[in-house]
Amino acid sequence: MSRIVYVNGAYVPEEEAKVSVFDRGFLMADAVYEVTSVLDGKLIDFEGHTARLRRSLSELEMPSPATDEELLAIHRELVARNGIHDGLVYLQVSRGAADRDFAYPDVPPTLVLFTQEKPQLVDSPLAARGMSVISIPDQRWKRRDIKTTQLLYPSMGKMMAKAAGADDAWMVEEGVVTEGTSNNAYIVTGNTLVTRQLGPEILSGITRTAVLRLAQEAQLRVEERPFTIEEAQSADEAFITSATTFVTPVVKIDGQGIGAGRPGPITQRLRELYIEEGRKAAI
Length: 283
Ligand code: PLP
What we know:
This protein has about 280 residues and is α+β, with helices and mostly antiparallel strands. The chain has eight helices and 15 strands. The radius of gyration is 19 Å and the shape is globular.
């Protein structure tokens, strides 16, 4: 069944949705995006995603295409029109269409949103079995705190993982883990949760913020600092977070089992808490 998508003010069937070939998102990856999860037809962490979108736009001096209230209305309209129960809303803002030139043009931005259904968001088979990851060098640009659509290296990373028979890759720079190809990375040893501190090297995950708060509330000690693959391999548990995977256990890193080699209790508890709290606060 054809979806209804949103393009620059109009709700249209996906086959009729059009963006110019001169759009800078298409030509130069001059675009930013957000992905918001939908559970029970409601948006999870919506305010966090719009706040990060504002920051991405401002870092790139890109005009805003709509107010937060307008964006919320569009999200809700798309969820309703497409009958999304569990899934996601993808939002992209590009600088707009103009003759190809490296200097930023003064044109209206392009705003596109669409939905994807994901019935197994909560009952995820990957969360039940746990993921295996490989380590790869982090060869992305140095402003990973801006959520741009330059996703070619993370895509290459996923393909490297696939070729190695793994589910994903953790990227390593100067000997320490930055993050997963599309998620933040964590390890747990005893009662201590470790994840890399924020900075230009990683994306400030909206799920990360919520999970660190939940971890503190659950009396875990939280250390925001870099860790190596070796430290991760000898940890009790490991996991990732993102808007569409919530909290998902990692049970193998570069072929080596983590802890008991199956999803750990702290990871499982944080996943439950995140889903529970997310549902309660969803709008
Ligand atoms: N890090 C990277 C590189 C990502 O692409 C993502 C999500 O797409 C995340 C972290 C997790 O961010 P969030 O929890 O806001 O989805």
